[in-house]
Design goal:
By secondary structure, this protein is an alpha+beta fold. The protein is 15% helix and 24% strand. The protein has three helices and ten strands. The radius of gyration is 43 Å and the shape is elongated.
């Protein structure tokens, strides 16, 4: 029995030590605010440094530094603080020659000419689902031109196959599925309308084959070296390794997505 009493007493002692060691300590002293210069915890008039009647971190800002030295203007090549206009190109600071020395004289040399953009290329996509099957002609209207574009533009056309047959583009004029697809353009001055007409010989339009007509207008000169502008464009594409039948390659050549 004495052994059991010793065990119980020892267990009780361990529990007491555990609770004693885990009790909270006393709270520490409050910190001192940065504006409390004498550390007494009381807001005093001389501690309102910026004079806004508030005691906060804005009163902890240091004094403003001294004014730095003036910088050197970008045009002042010799750092003498004076605009120098001379005949000597090594000392002349009027780089653009306008008799005024200022920031415009700080421009560097012109860079290389960039590649031509596609501002002279336009594209339209027409839905062909409403063309009646077996039709021998289909006409599409473009109203973007206020003047006759035919002397200054070449028009390239592709028929897009319906998606469930795989995305394929056929350039026209072309023979597709035993049908001869031709294309022509007319312009009505009075209504300022450009007509793109597709003529189909043979069995006629195959409504289940195509979904869209893509028309691309390329601005160019009327003649070049005795050749028509269309021949010139086709030759340029060929020299660049681009086949006119490859719609995506032609669009990439003209900088269009």
């Amino acid at each position: 029995n004495s052994m059991k009493l010793k065990q119980v007493f020892f267990a009780f002692l361990l529990v007491s030590l555990h609770f004693t060691s885990c009790s909270d300590g006393e709270d520490g002293a409050n910190g001192i605010n940065c504006w409390d210069t004498n550390g007494d915890g009381i807001d005093q008039e001389n501690e309102d440094v910026n004079g806004d009647n508030e005691f906060d971190f804005l009163d902890c800002m240091g004094t403003q530094g001294t004014q730095g030295d003036p910088g050197t203007p970008c045009w002042d090549l010799n750092n003498n603080g004076q605009p120098d206009i001379t005949e000597d190109k090594d000392t002349n600071e009027d780089i653009n020659g306008d008799n005024v020395v200022n920031a415009l004289d700080c421009r560097g040399a012109d860079g290389q000419q960039g590649e031509d953009g596609n501002a002279n290329v336009q594209r339209w996509v027409f839905d062909t689902s409403n063309i009646e099957n077996g039709s021998s002609i289909a006409t599409f209207e473009i109203t973007d031109f206020e003047e006759n574009p035919l002397p200054d533009y070449v028009f390239l056309c592709w028929l897009e196959q319906v998606p469930n047959l795989g995305v394929t583009f056929y350039s026209i004029p072309s023979v597709i599925s035993g049908r001869n697809y031709l294309v022509s353009q007319t312009y009505e001055e009075q209504d300022t309308k450009l007509g793109i007409t597709i003529g189909i010989t043979g069995p006629g339009w195959q409504a289940t084959l195509f979904s869209n007509l893509h028309v691309v207008a390329v601005e160019t000169s009327t003649t070049m070296g005795g050749k028509t502008s269309q021949d010139t464009i086709w030759e340029d594409l060929k020299k660049s390794g681009v086949a006119i039948e490859d719609y995506h390659a032609v669009m990439a050549y003209f900088g269009m997505k």
